[in-house]
Structure formats: structure tokens, C-alpha cells
Design goal:
The chain is α+β, with helices and mostly antiparallel strands. The protein has eleven helices and twelve strands.
Amino acid sequence: MSDALQIDWLAGTITNKPIGDTLDLLRQILGDWQELKYGGQGYECSAVIFGTGRIFWSYAHTEMGVHVRFPSSALAASGFESQALVAAFVHVGMKFTRVDFAMDDTTGILNLDEIASSVKEHCFVSRWKKWTHIENESGGRTINIGSRSSQSFLRIYDKAKEQKVEGHHIRVELELKDERADTAIRELLNETDWSKKVASWLLGHVDFKARGADTNKSRWLTVDWWAKFLGFVAKSRLHTPKSIKTIEDVIEWLTKQCAPSLVVVWSAFGSHKIQEMIDAAAVRLKPKHLDLIQSGIRFAGAG
């Protein structure tokens, strides 16, 4: 089986408390940090902690909450045990926006040539169709399955080559974002064996197969090396609740993401330019947009 599970990236936002209260709670958990003279990620203020960790907040836009971002180096420097840190963040009301789970093979179970061959010959079952195989000038190799723009993404790479050390070290990373990241953390809180659960998700995301005679690829047997690496777990899937868009969601998105740009256009060209954009977009409306318009009319009428 693989080595112990690691959390290799952790990020989330806390919006359920006043900014000052949230910062005080984070100081109690993490200790003090060094405030920077600039913001980032759309926030006006930021701080650095544990070398590469970042904390972002805005007093002028309290609805954005406090955003925390810990890459692997910050998690290692913090000295916190991953599960304890996750539990502490949950306690203060964090909604997780990204989590990367890493599982390592340092014993020789996985072979990048075999994995690359399985991918190129389409001997795997996955919801993902897109994949890439990247090699660099120093001999490092990475196999990516899925799209970085989606809420889930898998990378398998030579960690030893990346760190420029001798020995066998293949890392498998499952990157989850937004709803999938938050759902994963919530599910893990009810699990005693996080490694086993994440391994079952990995198998649910990508199942490498030994080619068989059956025309249905899903009935081919899982290859021995993948089953052994994952600890012979049963496949499971991470189910996220289907988001329901409302007119309130649209208003919130426009306010947070588009309002500053609209001000720029208005200031430069006047209100008629905004009206031109609206008129041009009207012909592209889909049934879901028309439903939102009707719900907005009802919403306004109720007010």
C-alpha cells in the first residue's frame, strides 16, 4: 500500500463572523503572523505565516470574509498535524475552497512507464477524458488526468526527480476545489481512516485496467499495481450537492465580480454603453436565464 496520506494544499474562507473576530480566532489557532503592506486575491490586506502561508482580508468588503491559503511548505512549517488543523478550521466556520491529497509510493509499487502506457492506450476508466504526459529537461515526468479548471484533477509525478534526490518516490495527488473540496473535508470528519477514504475516491476518479476481451471497459480487472497502491479498497465517489442558482446568487456574483468593471465602463463611455451590452446579450438568453428573470420579478414583487 502507499505511504501515509498527506494534505499538500489547504485553502478556505471564513465569512460567518466579523473580520476582527475571525482574525483573533485565527491568531489563537495559528499564532502571530507578519502583516504585509499590500493585499492580494482581491483583498486589501494580507499577511504571511509559516513562510509561504497567506491570510487575506478586507475591512472595506467584510462580505468577502477572511481567506487562508496554506501550500505544502506552509503546512509542513506550521508543525500542525493535518487532521487537527482541518478540525480547527472547521470549528471557526471555514468553507474550504481547495484541498490537495497526496499519497506516495517509495517502495516501487508504481512505475511511471506503466502508468503512461495505460493512459496512452486508454486502459483506464474515468469521468475525465483529457490527459497530458509532460517531461522536462532534468528527467522529471508528470501525468495529468483531468482539467485544472474543473473541481477535481489528478496528477502523478516523480517526486524524487522534482526534489533532485536519489531513490524511488512517485506521488499521486488529487486536487479538489470549491464544492468538492468542502464536501470532501466534511465527509472526512466522519471517517476514522482518512487514507482509506481518499484511496477509495482515487479509485472512483481513475481506475487503471488490465485489457480484457469484454467490450465494456468498466468490467476489465483493475491492474495489480493500482489496487495494491490503493490498499485494495472499494471504489467510492464524492457526491456534491447540486447547486441551485437563484436571482440572489446572480446579484451577489455581479456585485463581487463585475461591479468594479461596470463602473469603469460607465465612467469611460456612459450608461448607454451598459445598455448596449445588455441589449446584445438579450438574444443569447437560455431557458435557465428566463426562469431566473421570472423568479426575479416575483422576488421584486414580494419586496
